[in-house]
Amino acid sequence: MISIASQLLSCFVFFFVPYLSSGADTLFANQSLSGDETLVSLAGNFELGFFRPGESPNYYIGIWYKKVTSNPPTVVWVANRETPISDIFKSQLKILDGNLMLFNESNAQIWSTGMMSTSSSSALVVLYDDGNLVLRYGSNSSPPIWQSFDHPTHTFLPGSKIGYDKRTNAKQVLTSWRSSEDPALGLFSLEIDQIKIQYVLKWNKSVEYWSSGSWNGQIFSSIPEMRLNYIYNFSYINNENESYFTYSLYDPSIISRFILDVSGQLMQLSWLEREEQWNLFWARPITQCDIYAVCGAFGTCNQNTLPFCKCLAAFEPRSPRDWNMSDSSGGCVRKTKLNCTVKEENPGFITNYVPFKTVSSFPENGTSFLDESACISSCLDDCSCDAYSFTFKTCWLWNSENLNNISLVFVSDDANSVPLNIKVSSSDLPTNPAKLNTKVLVAGIVSGFFGLVFLCSIGLIFYKKVKGRGSRDENRGNLELQFDDSATNVRYLVDPGILLSAEDRKGIVVPFFEFKTILSATQNFSLANKLGQGGFGPVYKGMLPGGTEIAVKRLSSQSGQGLKEFKNEVVLIAKLQHRNLVRLVGYSMKDHEMMLLYEYMPNKSLDRFIFDRTLCMCLDWAIRFDIIMGIARGLLYLHQDSRLRIIHRDLKTSNVLLDKEMNPKISDFGLAKIVKGRETEASTGRVIGTYGYMSPEYALDGLFSVKSDVFSFGVVVLEIISGKRNTGYYHNQQAFSLISYAWGLWKDKTPLDLLDPALAESCNSIEVLRCMIIGLLCIQEDPRDRPTMMDVVLMLGMDIESLPDPKEPAFISKTHLHSLPSSSSKSEINQLTITDLEGR
Question: Which top-level group of life is the source organism from (predicted)?
Fold first, then answer.
């Protein structure tokens, strides 16, 4: 009877379900999918079908977001990664022998679920709303026989897992695409490390270049963003059968995914429906230049330029098409191939630099020579020699095998690097190839007259001693320094005198400028060049030789800030590199006068615009929202992503500068504090800051943390929305501050009354309300209730319904203000320093 019933069911399926229904989520046995036919999950979240990545001529079977309007579609899973097809109308995806199989235009099987073959006619495949494709035998309630979540490609979706099956020794591994138009297995993979209970990124499945840090029961130690547990629910499961990492979303309406990008970075992105784009929240490694072999052989990486990867001089990308799609892993090749059989070619050398620490991995059997000319001759005479190094009077000859070592990293010339001279064709030399022979000749002359040169050197040193410091000053004053966004690694530093000790100067990586250079650049600090006056002192516009514009901040003798703050800013800000942080160009000291040189911001400070009833018209809501986002990202970098965990302690609108495109840049790090390791808070007996922006725990008890900066950020957000200062007095509203006023509007359910009238025509009311809620969340009285800056960046892209309700802010009544003396000791109050509100 069972056999007869099974046969009847088979006949029913064959006669009554022969074709795939449009928009169906299930593929039955004896059905097939081809051409433009697709499966669509029940709620329309995901779609499965044939797709073509970018301009590629190849087609693949994949799953993509149905509700995401990206073009091309955002693919989350690919079946036939290594075996594309060319004709989707002659290809078929169907169930055969109990397996889901893909046949190409020649009817050859190119992909299968790979389960044990069975003649079961009850097999079916269902695409679920979580993006999981499941093969079952029987009804939808039967256990899965195979599922795509067990075989991820480059995307880690909520509900899926990355782990290790202890029974079969199989791993779920994320593997990057080969390029943005080729989903084949790329060079980068993410997998679990069973011993250390962590995840690792590997290059070519062999070289580990990043790890997540061990699981501590809540997060992986190197991914603090996982603390956003009101959005994500992260879990690490470890039992006798398997161990794996998975996550879910508290709000299923949020579209979020983790991907292993073609760049080798692990990224977490969320879809912003209004902007119709994916928003990147974090990436690991943080910078692309930290990725192993990201630029390939003969490529260099500079995080401060776009594109990051460039070929060495006389080299060009191996695959220009791949480089144009941001895949530089193929590296570079010589523009002109060397030809040893042509004697008159007369090749030359181009000098590059590699880290000093790589000397131990230089080719074996280095040869000792007295001078470099012999080493050059040895390489020129050896047809297999592609480069040479001459270090410690030892000559190393490099051939193509060891020179093409992809782990060979090229760096800038500094004290921690050694030269590597690469042989290139004479046609690719930047100068006249005849200079090569001159170089050999000069090297011989230097060797022959070494004694004479030595004596001349002694004489020169003696002459400099006699001439003294004045001569050195003149030479340095004539030095022409130029810089741009691609040349931030200036290392010229001259002894600035007794104000900074030798120990202090060790951490300074920006140039020292002579006072006469500053005088010339600012036209003797003329009033015409004065940009403003702040708590630190006056700020002047300057012009360096070569036409580079700078802003010179001159320490006033009446300033409450002194040498300690000056040194703090010189040493600290020079180590920070972010598009939303102002860049320090250099510094200068003469006698007891101190100056800081910054990149020039033509639009000056944010407060100049939002508090001026004329200039505020230049800032529509779209610009203001971008400014809020930029400040948030700058603070996130300081708190979490920079090499040092930094608390700014003086964030305010006058310390946010605007470049010519109105991009915000946080400035003034004189009061900033570095906290060690994973610490996020500290205390001080000397409270310094600006009234109206200081958090209550800092103003009253000297306690500061990253949440102190969050409080200041919340005040700045409310000021940007309203166009009003926090310290204003709102007589009609019976509020003594903007915080109190905004909270009253929130309680009265009239939050949009906070809006600056200048924004009436340009505002997006949903975004304004979202930013106001975030601002109120940031100024809550208890620091534990305030979000982190990672939370803030995430919330700026969320729906309002997903945001928590703010609690009562600090400083909403006058009693809070009057309680200041009673909450602090007399000594603490005496050390309270308040700076003014003018632009710096």
Answer: Eukaryota
Active site residue: 182, 386, 650, 791, which one? 650
Q: Is residue 19 classed exposed, middle or buried when 0-12, 13-18 and 19+ CB atoms within 10 A define those classes?
A: exposed
Domains 153-292 and 468-600 are alike in CATH topology? no
> Cα(51)–Cα(77) distance, rounded to whole angstroms?
11
Q: Which pLDDT score is estimated for 514?
A: 86
CA 756, 762, 763 angle in degrees (round to 5)? Answer: 60
Distances (CA, A) of 498 to 501, 586, 591, 808: 7, 18, 9, 51
The identity of residue 553, as a single letter, is K
3-state secondary structure of 107: coil
Domain boundaries in the chain?
1-151, 153-292, 293-334, 343-450, 468-600, 604-840
The predicted-structure confidence for 489-520, as pLDDT tens digits, reads as follows 222 222 333 345 545 555 566 788 888 889 88
Q: Which amino acid is at 108?
A: A
Give the whole-number percent of the chain exceeding pLDDT 70.
74
> Quick check: 777 and 806 in contact, CB under 8 A?
yes
By the 10 Å C-beta count (0-12 exposed, 13-18 middle, 19+ buried), 757 is classed as: exposed
DSSP labels, 704-757: EEHHHHHHHHHHHHHHHHH---TT--BGGGTBSSHHHHHHHHHHTT-GGGGS-G
Residue pair 192/243 in contact (Cβ under 8 Å)? The answer is yes
Distance (Å, whole) CA 88 – CA 59: 7
Q: What is the rounded CA–CA span in Å between residue 192 and residue 189?
A: 10
For the stretch 808-811, contacts whose Cβ atoms lie closer than 8 Å and that sit 24 or more positions apart, written own/partner, are 808/743, 808/780, 808/781, 809/739, 809/740, 809/742, 809/743, 809/776, 809/779, 809/780, 809/781, 810/695, 810/696, 810/711, 810/739, 810/779, 810/780, 810/781, 811/696, 811/737, 811/739, 811/740
Q: Does domain 153-292 have CATH number 2.90.10.10?
A: yes
182 is catalytic: no
| Mean pLDDT of the region 574-582 | 81
Three-class SS of 346-411: CCEEEEEEEEHHHHHHCCCCCEECCCHHHHHHHHHHCCCCCEEEEECCEEEEECHHHHCCCCCCCE
The CATH number corresponding to 468-600 among 3.40.1380.10, 3.40.50.300, 3.40.50.280, 3.30.200.20 equals 3.30.200.20
Give the separation between CA 788 and CA 797, rounded to whole angstroms: 15
- Please state, in angstroms and as integers, the Cα–Cα distance from residue 188 to each residue in 170, 193, 260, 307, 324, following that order: 18, 15, 8, 20, 19
Q: Name the packing angle between helices 706-722 and 765-778 (round to 10°).
A: 150
- 525 or 564, higher pLDDT: 525
Tens-digit pLDDT profile for residues 700-709: 777 888 999 9
Q: What is the pTM of this model?
A: 0.52
CB 650 within 8 A of CB 689: yes
Quote the CA–CA distance of 348 and 386 in Å, as a whole number. Answer: 10
* Nearby residues of 123 by Cβ (< 8 Å), 6 or more positions away: 29, 95, 98, 99, 135, 136, 137, 145
Distance CA 334, CA 338 (A): 8
C-alpha pair distances (Å), 798 with each of 70, 248, 717: 18, 16, 17
Q: Tell how many helices (H) and how many strands (E) occur in the chain.
A: 19, 46
Nearest 10 degrees: CA dihedral of 184, 186, 192, 194? 110
Homologous superfamily of the 1-151 domain (CATH): Bulb-type lectin domain (2.90.10.10)
CA pair distance 382, 399, nearest whole angstrom = 10
Average pLDDT, the chain: 77
- DSSP secondary structure of 516-556: HHHHHHTTTT-GGGEEEE-SS-EEEEEE-TTS-EEEEEE--
For the beta carbon of residue 34, count every other beta carbon within 10 angstroms: 17
